[in-house]
Amino acid sequence: MSTALQTPEVAETPNYLNSEYGWKSWLFTKDHKRIAVLYIISITVMFFIGGIFASLIRVELLTPQGDLVNSDTYNKFFTMHGIVMVFFFLIPSIPATLGNFFLPMQIGAKDLAFPRINLLSWYIYIAGAAFALSAIVLGGVDTGWTFYTPFSSTYSNTFVITAAVGVFIAGFSSILTGLNFIVTVHKMRAPGMTWGRLPLFVWANYATSLIQVLGTPVVAITLALVGLERAFHIGIFDPAIGGDPILFQHMFWFYSHPAVYIMILPGMGVISEIVTCFSRKGIFGYPFIAGSSLGIAIIGFLVWGHHMFVTGMSMYASLYFSLLTMLVAVPSAIKVFNWTATMFRGSISFDTPMLYAFGFIGLFTIGGLTGLFLATLGVDVHVTDTYFVVAHFHYVMVGGMVLAYLGGMHFWWPKITGKLYPEGWARFAALLVFAGFNLTFFPQFITGYLGQPRRYHAYAPEFQVLNVMSTAGASVLGLGYVIPLIYFLWSLKYGKPAGNNPWKAKGLEWETSSPPPTFNFDTPPIVTEEAYAYGSDSAHQEDSHHG
Amino acid sequence: MNFPLFPEAASSMARQVDYLYAYLTVVTVVMTGLIFAVVFFFAIKYRRKHDDEVPKPIHGSLVLEITWSIIPFIVMLSFFWWGAQIFFANATPPSNAMDIYVVGKQWMWKIQYPGGQREINELHVPVNRPVKITLASEDVIHSFFIPAFRIKHDVVPGRYDTMWFTATKPGRYHIFCAEYCGTEHSGMIGWVTVMPENDYENWLASGGNEGTMADQGGRLFEQLGCSTCHELDRQGRCPNLRGVYGSRVQFTDGSTRDADDAYIRESILNPNARVVQGYKADVMPTYQGQLSEEQLLQLVVYIKSLAITGAPGVPTAAAPAASAGSRQ
Hints:
The structure holds 2 protein chains of 2 kinds. Chain A is mostly helical. Chain A is 68% helix and 0% strand.
């Protein structure tokens, strides 16, 4: 990828890609855009590694018997799929790539507040990923991505500490990115960029940053304690040496439930950008979408116990967690309704990013509503720890988050690279992803209610038909992921020049050249209108920037 | 091909859960259908006709925002309320429930009946009679899951958990371990057999040659030397355990608690955790690591029996004739 980017023919005008050449100019860069590109490359690698494990899982599950690999190997497959996807793809995905690139541009800043810390956070991420990958190479981990004790702290014979250290380290990368975003949004906004004019992508990343800064230390401490118990037999979680295994779950989910909002909130921000642009209309209910991001971030910290309804936790605690989980669904519902209302009397086009947004709205709705099944106490007792849970969170994480990421990549690719991708192929891949995804995960709601537990290497024969459907769907989904990888790379060399604003979108990032200059704007922007001011008379303002 | 959407419903609670699940599914389908339909309708009706059209902005509507916040929340409260009803019913076993004891161990389920019968990965219960299961784990967290009964409960090491059900339909149903527990997690499965009452009594009578669980516990009580201090006919160095189970116990620090399974367990494994008023700490050694969870349960049942009947260790069920019926 970088070799193609170094080709001077990319653009004649000076931009962040042609300002310097050579590997040093990338590895020592302080430009948020170049760091975003480094992140895009890194998380893409991690995504495909996690995807390989997913494929291996699906192939094994073609037959009810555990016949492709042995049980230990299978357990390592789903563990490493989970660890790689959650901690090294989903959590950094949008904030560290699109957030890094566009959050400063959208508020009219020339960089993040702390460019060196931004680069440091990428190195920390790489160090964490190196530990996680070395755990895989050394022989793998078999605890599940949730590291439940006392299995992880005492019983597992695999490379738990190596993997936990990887996650621990990567956590600091997440904290630093969050800090950087918070300070940047507070201190670096262009003149006229009031809080009420912030693009919703910025609001979403801001809310995400709050969770990253407040939540991540807790999971870091928790995993450190697992490591200490494993290495030195300090009794914290294992009851045989005086610990409490349920304490681990409280601490783990105190972070890891908010973490699902770390994963989905930035995706919601992307959808707000796409829906407005391709409906050519201001967002419906701006304060409600912005406020609901903060609402999700805050209430999201108070619902962790809904992962623990069958652990024997106090019945009254369960009632509380059930009720608050219902409450946290309200801001998510508000967003879905507002996006839908934004399309009302719009001018809707069907470019690839919008196809992903349609997919997101539908699949996230299903993911969110099935979350309510799990929040409903009497039903959760039956479906928790079954494939119903697997289906639910893949609807949110893949149907929601991955679609938003792909939508965002297609939306901003012309800005990032200055090139257009082949629209026909892109639409085709979007449809493949949507169809493949549903075929993979919808049957899992049914197997889950029928009682197939998750993390089963061998399963009861009556579940086979639905599992074969899942595996077939996963093949289609996999193809849908590979095609964009190919045409994105292709477009770097052969793509048509994108121009500054191929979508006629609003937002400061579209007012500068593509790819943007090193300091983003040739003249510092001054903001005179609200976000997404489609249809308002703003021609004079655009002129002033290009002049 | 047979293509069920619901697993078999074989407990008093199963249909309740199915109805609630069906209600949730209907709401989900209606809501998702509505969103899909509106998005589809808008996308077609307001599709871009020419490239430079710019529609008029609409900023929002407070009335709509309030409406679509409040109505979903009210619907969600109905989920919450109904779900809580079922959860409460699941949490409180009826007082006439029969006891069965389940120990999870990597990677098998060990099942003990009060009559002393023992099995592995097979659970036999009578139809139409409430059964209370006491769960213990020998190692990591497991989860005892019977899909046909729509219940599961985690089996957490270091403590007892309970769950209960009333089976309503004779047959054989899956038992799964639902909490990932290591290598053979997916092999930690078994069957629950629901039998008509008469067959069940016959089945019970055909197994168990080691005496009742209380008898087994009583023998352990002697073997481990418990009875040298906990004398049953007079007051010894340690509390007389007759009548203790179920009573309110007072401790040296002034606190009190009911003597239940968890208290008995704690007193065996960690005697200094709570010292009964009038006695000294450090008299009793810990039995941590010396007893299996099954043996602990036998002791608990024995001590419980001391509070129920007059004579020490005599609550014998139907004569346990020696037989090959016992699975262990």
